[in-house]
Write a structure and sequence with these properties.
By secondary structure, this protein is mainly alpha-helical. It is 72% helix and 0% strand. The longest helix has 23 residues, at 58-80.
Length: 194
């Protein structure tokens, strides 16, 4: 919501078809990120994050999720305001700032722990993929309007849900399947209407 609202505030006016796709992308993300117990309250726990999070910590988890979502949205808005002449240098600054802040928080809380040797390849792959995704987003901003590029970028939970299905063999809840269908419809509408 943050980038979409900011985009409209900054003057983006997508076509009607793209606007319908953008509107569809919002519930698609909510459905994808939900699970049956997340929608019903504290019912049967069916996915790992809910098996781990106890009932006492659920509200804190939700608050952190909202803060993280606002952070992602503001990051998307900040990247949209960079000059196209800057190339990928804004990502270098963002990465340096995030590493510095994370190091300060970890040091301040004294929660340093070494990364095990077998985990290093996964850490490096995750970092490279994250940088690549941000690079693709920044490149897409140069070729499209901010509102629909941000709406497509906000569908990143699709990859998380699909990876959980393929790699971890998690079952998709019916609500997540509906979210996948809505995300597909949103992509088609945005692509046709752009």
């Amino acid at each position: 919501l943050v980038p979409v609202i900011a985009g409209f505030g900054l003057g983006d006016r997508p076509s009607e078809l793209a606007l319908i796709g953008i509107a569809l992308s919002i519930p698609a993300v909510v459905l994808l990120s939900s699970s049956p117990s997340g929608l019903k309250g504290f019912g049967q726990r069916t996915v790992p994050r809910e098996r781990v999070a106890s009932q006492a910590h659920m509200n804190r988890t939700r608050l952190i999720s909202v803060i993280a979502g606002l952070g992602f949205g503001l990051f998307f808005v900040a990247l949209s305001r960079t000059s196209s002449d800057a190339g990928l240098f804004p990502l270098l600054g963002a990465r340096a700032a995030s590493i510095t802040v994370l190091a300060l928080v970890i040091t301040g809380r004294r929660v340093w722990s070494p990364i095990s040797r077998p985990s290093w390849p996964y850490v490096l792959i995750a970092g490279v993929l994250d940088c690549a995704a941000n690079g693709f987003y920044l490149t897409a901003l140069g070729r499209g309007t901010f509102v629909w590029v941000a709406a497509i970028a906000s569908l990143y939970p699709v990859s998380t849900v699909l990876l959980a299905r393929v790699v971890l063999k998690e079952r998709l809840a019916p609500i997540q399947v509906l979210g996948l269908a809505a995300a597909g419809g949103a992509l088609v509408l945005i692509a046709i209407g752009r």
